[in-house]
Structures are given as C-alpha cells and as structure tokens.
Write a structure and sequence with these properties.
285 residues; 9 helices; Rossmann fold; three-stranded parallel sheet; six-stranded parallel sheet; alpha/beta
Length: 285
Amino acid sequence: MDTTGAPRELSGRALATALRTETTERAAELTALGTTPHLAVVSATADKSSAWYVRSIARAAEKAGLSCSVVDLGPDATPATIRDRLRALSADPTVHGIILQTPLPAGARLDDLASAIAPVKDVDGANPLSLGRLAAGLPAFAPATAEAVIALLDHHGITLEGRHAVVVGRSTVVGKPAAHLLLDRNATVTVCHSRTHDLAAVTRTADVLVAAVGRPRLITAAHVHAGTVIIDVGTNPTEDGALVGDVDPAVARHAAAVTPVPGGVGPVTTALLLQHTIRAALTVE
C-alpha cells in the first residue's frame, strides 16, 4: 500500500455507475423475455432518513428498469402484520427481491421478522438462514452494505490476502458479515465492539480498518497508523441534514486511503441491492 503523499479517496461513485449499467442491461434482457425484475421494500417506520433511503432505492430501481413496490405499513404496524406481509410477498411469483427496512416498530425484531423472507428473495441478506449460509461459505445473498465493503476494496486494488483487517462493529447488518467476507478473502480479521478494551490499540494494528459502529467520528487519528486503508460505513445524520461517517475527517491525513461520506459505501450498497434483485429474478424464474 502506498503511504506517501495525500491519501487516496476510495470513492464508490464510479463502481456504482458500472454496477448500475450492468444491472440496466440485464434488466432489459429479462424484461424482453417477459420478466420485469421486481423489488419490494417493506417499511414500518416514520423515520425521515429511512424514508429518504427507501425513496432513493425506488428511484434507482426504476431508473435501471426494475419495478419497485414500496409497502408502507406505518410505524404502528404489529410484528404479526409485518410478518404476514413478508410471507405474502415471498409467495408472490411476481416479486423477486424483498427488503425489510429498518428501524422497526417497538417490540419488533429484525432477525425474527426477516426469517419470513424467502432466502431466494432475501436480497439484503437479512434472514438468519442467509447469514448462516454466508458464515458457512455457502451460496447466499450477503447484506449489501457488507458486500459493498469488499467490492470497494477490490475496485481500488486493495490487497486483502494476508492483511490484518479490523472491523469496528458487530451488527448482523455490516460488522459480522463483513468479517466473514474478509475471512473468505484470506485476511486475518479482528472484530471490535463496545466492550473492546483500548480500542485504539487494536485499530492501530490494522492494515484495513472497517468502521461500522454508527457513532459519528468515533475513529480519530489516535486509532490509525500511516498505512491504514479505511472503509467508513457510517452514515450519521447531523442537525443540519448533512451526513457524517464514523471516522473523523481529520483522520484522512494519517491514512493511506479512505472512503468519503457520502459517496463511498452508500452508492455501492444501493447498486448491489439492484444487482441482487436481478440475480434473484434469474433464480426464481
């Protein structure tokens, strides 16, 4: 890794464009054969940032030639209502991909409800069966954000084999699946979390640091060394409507390369969700 000069910006925009172009071409081919790939997004929240994200997915899907249904059950939806809708969508032959958007209403658990999504339509890898297959190295849809981490590293030519990768965060959405994907690429992986003693001492050993904890600017210059490649998964809204990552911008001066927020992992995640829907359409059909 080149540690001289200004750090490289690991933008995700060019990769996302390439993925969307491929998706658009494949969607057109499927539609010409009589099958329009159909993504359903189930939402049960009044969270404004979540609503914005769902709208962005719908716009991106339609622009790429996919059909996208947003199923808004409202913030008062019961777990039973959400589960029933997920089961109905799973049984609907015209629906190829299903996403359960978070946050969920009080009392609703993602792992419990996501088990109602058929694995062949689980394009964001939320069903525990999908996560288990991923951990076992079996075919499954990986959570798109975790896969975006690997896709970005590959796109920018960052070597993983034999490197020490440190993942900060152990969620089933990003941290744990990202760790498994990094292991599959022969990296040596350490996972940190809220109970890790002396977090900075661990992260300073990283060749590749994945920040996925959802705490604004948690990672500072004290957490990295000069050769670190940083993937910032954080998208934390500020009071003025901007987004900041889990990494303090000042850290860029001390790293070899870093993803921007926004414009890094985010656009790749959305593009991968659409690509997964294409794969699901091919499988279901």
